[in-house]
Amino acid sequence: MARFFWILTLIPTLLFAQAEEERIVLVIHGGAGWITPDRYEADEEAALTAVMQAALQAGYAVIEQGGMAEDAVVAAIQVMEEDSNFNAGIGAVFTHEETNDLDASIMRGGDLNAGAVAGVRTIKSPIEGALTVMNESPHVMLSGRGAEAFAEEIGLEMVDPSYFYTKSAFDYLQKVKANEKNGGLLDGTQDHKFGTVGCVALDESGNLAAGTSTGGMTNKRWGRIGDSPIIGAGTYANNATCGVSCTGWGEFFIRNQAAYQLSALMEYAGMSLEDAADKVIQDIDAMEAKGGLIALSSKGECQWSFSTPGMFRAYITESGKMVVKFYTEE
Amino acid sequence: MARFFWILTLIPTLLFAQAEEERIVLVIHGGAGWITPDRYEADEEAALTAVMQAALQAGYAVIEQGGMAEDAVVAAIQVMEEDSNFNAGIGAVFTHEETNDLDASIMRGGDLNAGAVAGVRTIKSPIEGALTVMNESPHVMLSGRGAEAFAEEIGLEMVDPSYFYTKSAFDYLQKVKANEKNGGLLDGTQDHKFGTVGCVALDESGNLAAGTSTGGMTNKRWGRIGDSPIIGAGTYANNATCGVSCTGWGEFFIRNQAAYQLSALMEYAGMSLEDAADKVIQDIDAMEAKGGLIALSSKGECQWSFSTPGMFRAYITESGKMVVKFYTEE
Known about the structure:
The structure is a homodimer.
Chain A: H1 2-21, E1 24-33, H2 42-64, H3 69-81, E2 102-108, E3 114-120, H4 126-136, E4 141-143, H5 144-154, H6 167-181, E5 193-194, E6 197-202, E7 208-214, E8 224-225, E9 235-237, E10 242-248, H7 250-255, H8 258-269, H9 273-285, E11 291-297, E12 302-306, E13 310-317, E14 322-327
Parallel strand pairs in A: 3-4
Antiparallel strand pairs in A: 1-5, 1-6, 1-13, 2-3, 2-7, 6-7, 9-10, 10-11, 11-12, 13-14
Helix pairs in contact in A: 2-3, 3-4, 4-5, 8-9
C-alpha cells in the first residue's frame, strides 16, 4: 500500500518535472501557404524535413555552447537561406524587374535593439546583414545600395546578384507575369506559398531574439517593402513577453502590426501566448488576408498560428528533441 | 438671491457645454527639439506661427467641406513641406551623400489602410506620395527609385532633386561632417531640432487619419530609413483609439513601436490618451533618446507629449479656434 502511494505520487511528479525541464529553446518557420499532403512526394517531404532539422540543430549548437539568442537565430536562418526550397537567400522570388531584392530583420528581447536590411541584392546572408546593422551601426533599418555599401564596409561576404537565382523562382515570375497580362492577380494568392523563413530563440541567459528573412512577393515592383524587414510587423522580440516571426501577405501584417500586437496583447491585455497568437492571425483573416506566425515566450513555451492550409514549422527543446510539422493538425 | 443662484448654475453649464462642443479636429507638429525662447526673435516666432496657422487652416478647410481626414492631413502637411523652416519637403536635411532623401507615411483609422514612401528625391509632395501608395497600389510601403516610378506613372507632380535644396540645411550637413571628422556624433543631438512634420485629423464622419513627412537625420547614410515612413513607429491611426504622429530619434521610435504602442495602451491596457502619450515618451526617454508626439482621439481629444525643451505644435477646434505652442509649458 505504501509502495502504491509512492508510485501515485511519483508519476505526476515525474511528468511535471519533464514538463518543467523541456523548455523549447528554438522555433523556426519556412513559410505558410497552400502546403497540403497531396502536393509533396515522400522524398520531397524527407528533404524538407532534413533541412528544417539542420536549421534547428545549427541554432541549437549556438545555444548549447552558451551563445546568444541572436546568433542562434542567424545560424538557423542561414541554413534556410542557403536552401533553394525557401523564399529567402538562394531560391528567393523575383521582382517585376527580374531581380532578387532581399529583406531581413532581427530583434533582441533584452534591450529591444533591432536591425534590418531592405531591398539588398549582394549581401550573401541578408539575416547576417540585419544582425550587423543592429550590432555595428547606430541605425535600425538600412536599404538598397546603401545597405550593401555598409555591409561591404563592415566586411560581410558579398556575392554577385546571380548567386540567388533559381530556375523555379524565375519560371514562377514568368507565370505570374503572363497571368497578370490576362487580368489575373499581381501574385497568385491561390496555389501560393509564402516561403519566408523565420526563427525565434531563447538562450541560456534567458534572452529572446527573433529574425525573419525573405525575397518578398513574386512580381513585386516599385521598391515595395513588405513586413519582413519591419520591426513590429514581421519581427519582434521582448524578454517581458515573447519573440515573434511572421509569414504571409505582408501588407496586412504591417497594417495590423502583427508581431508587436502579439506582444502587446500579452503585456497589456494579460492574454496567454496561445490566445494572443490566435487573435493576431484572426484579425488578419478578418481582412481576408492569409499567413502565419511562430512565437516563443521567455518561459520556453512555443506557439504557432496560421490561416493557410499549412506552414513549415519546427522546434527543438533544450534536451535536443525535435518536432517538425508541415500540414494543419487534425 | 435667485439671480445669484441662476448665475452660479449657468457658469458651469456654459463651461461644460463649451467643452462638449469644442472637439479638436486637427492637430499638427513641426518637430521637437531644443526649441527654447532664447533661440527665436519675435519676427521668427511670428513667421513660424503664421505657417502653422496656415497649415491648420488648409486641413480645416477640407474637414469643413465634409472632406476625408486623410485629405485634411495631406493638405496641412503640404503647407509645412513647402515651408523651408521644417525638415520636410523644401528645407529637408541632407544625407551624407548630399542628397535629400525624403520619407513620408499616412494611415487611415477606419480600415487601417496605410501608405508610405521611403528615400524619394523627385516626388514634389512626399505625403501625397504616401497617400497615393495607400489609395492606388496594393502595397503599403514603396522605396527609392521604384517609389518615384510609381508616383510618375500615377501622374503625381515630379520635381528635380534640387527643388528641396536650402542653403541652411546644406551648411548644417557640412558642420555635422566637420564635427564627425573631429570625433563628434553622427548628428548633433545637443543643439538639435528634429524638424519632422506631422498631422492627425478627425473628419465629420468620425474617421481619423495620421501622417508624417520628413527628410530624416542630417548626415544619414547607407539608405537609412527612420521611423517616419514606418507604420506603427512614426505614424498610426485607428478609429477605435486615436491617431498619432511622432518626431524624434527615429531608431528608438521604431524599437519601441511608439505610435502603435500608444494605441495599444489605450485599447488593451485601458489607459487614457494622456497617460498613454506620456508613457510612450517616458519609455523612449528611459533609453536616453528624445522626441515627441501628437495624438488625437476619435472623440476629438488632443494630446501631445515630448521630452525635449520644445515642440512646434498646434491644433484647431471644430469652430475654427486655433492654439499654437512652441515651448515647454510652465
